[in-house]
Amino acid sequence: MKKLNKKILVLSLILLMGIITIGINNKKELNIKKVDSKKLAVYIKQEDGSYKASNTIPSIGYTLNNEKSTCSNGAKPTWNNNGLNIANLTSNNTNCYLYFDGDVATKKLKELGLTSNTTAPDFSQTATTDEGIFGVEDGMYGGTSYYWRGAVTNNYVRFGNFCWRAIRINGDGSIRLIYDGTTCHANGTSTAESIAVANTAYNTRSNQSNYVGWTYDGVSQRTLSGTASNAKTQLESWYNSNIGNNTTYTLKIADGKYCNDRNVELGYTWAINGDKFGYAGYKRTNVDYAPTLACNSSDVYTLKTGLITADETMYAGGKHGSNATYYLYNGQYYWTMSPHYWESLGGGYASILFVDSGGSLAGWGDLSGARGLRPVINLKSDVTFTGNGTIDNPFVVEEI
């Protein structure tokens, strides 16, 4: 068959497949609206391992089986939660056969006996009740991440002689936890015990914007090496003394991905000092109410321990505004890992978003102020548990 020019190809695809074209390059990106049985066949893997034909394309919780999925005319399909991408597309007589498997995070969710909501929450409001578990595209790990939101009571985990609260199941099936102390605390409890390192600066200096970095150097907007922030040094010291010195524990810990998002707001230009500007994480969580798990690869640290991000705090039910009932509330001040602002007045100072004593996601004050650290770790995807996640019967990591 003759190759069609791009305009004819796009028109043909619109007429024949009922699709919207969202990009035309060497790799045609197609956002499927509906399944046309003449051109597109979709199969979803069942519990028994077989594939069943479907009239709809699955949303979150599934990944495309790249090995089984094929298109005619030499085209090759790939998939993300935003749509279908077809490479080497040259003909209007292209037929695609797509096979979807449940992803590893969905498998872990089921393994824990948990289910997720099918709707998205309203991030412009704090989550003061038990809203449950939601799925979202995981921009760092790939696949789907499932996060707990609001005053949930089924995310308690006992590990390493400490109590933790599960933040989310990462896209690779590992589970992200935040420290809750030597004992488990009911939602709404004000307690300093859930702070591992108290009254410490995120960084001891704040008069340059690059001090928002988990690590930093003297000139760059971002670096994954360089000088460690005070928070990184203090946190890793706690981890090494309480978890890292025990082989039984460390065998369960995954190398987690942690986002220290140093992108600046649209319309601003980063500078080491000078004119003020806001960081992108501040605008997402305080203006747009649009958290994300995506992160610039140059801001992703692979670590044994880190801090929660402002985006994860918003997924959990926090925002700018008090919330004393969601599971992250502890009546204390503690740092996130998300840069907030560079203020040029008074010699200039940089700030980091933090959770305040009312449970609000805040950012006032410079990063050399005293706040607490709540360690975040990730348990490997193959870790197994007993219990049901409640405060009286928490998920307990099984020893092997």
Task: Describe the protein's topology.
Layout: H1 6-17, E1 19-23, E2 27-32, E3 40-45, E4 51-54, E5 62-64, E6 70-71, E7 76-80, E8 83-87, E9 96-102, H2 104-111, E10 130-137, E11 144-150, E12 156-159, E13 162-169, E14 175-181, E15 197-200, E16 215-216, E17 227-228, H3 230-242, H4 247-250, E18 256-259, E19 277-278, H5 280-288, E20 300-303, H6 310-316, E21 334-343, E22 349-355, E23 361-362, E24 371-373, E25 376-379, E26 385-386, E27 395-397
Parallel strand pairs: 3-9, 12-27
Antiparallel strand pairs: 1-2, 2-8, 3-4, 5-9, 6-9, 7-8, 10-11, 11-13, 12-13, 13-14, 14-25, 15-24, 16-17, 18-20, 19-21, 21-22, 22-23, 26-27
Kindly describe this structure.
The protein is of the alpha+beta class and 400 residues long. It has 2 domains: 97 residues, no CATH class; 279 residues, no CATH class. 13% of the residues lie in helices and 32% in strands. The chain is built from 6 helices and 27 strands. The strands form 7 sheets. Strands 10, 11, 12, 13, 14, 25, 26 and 27 form an 8-stranded mixed sheet that branches. Strand 22 and strand 23 form a beta hairpin. The longest helix is centred in the middle third of the chain and has 13 residues. The N and C termini lie far apart (60 Å). The N terminus is likely disordered.
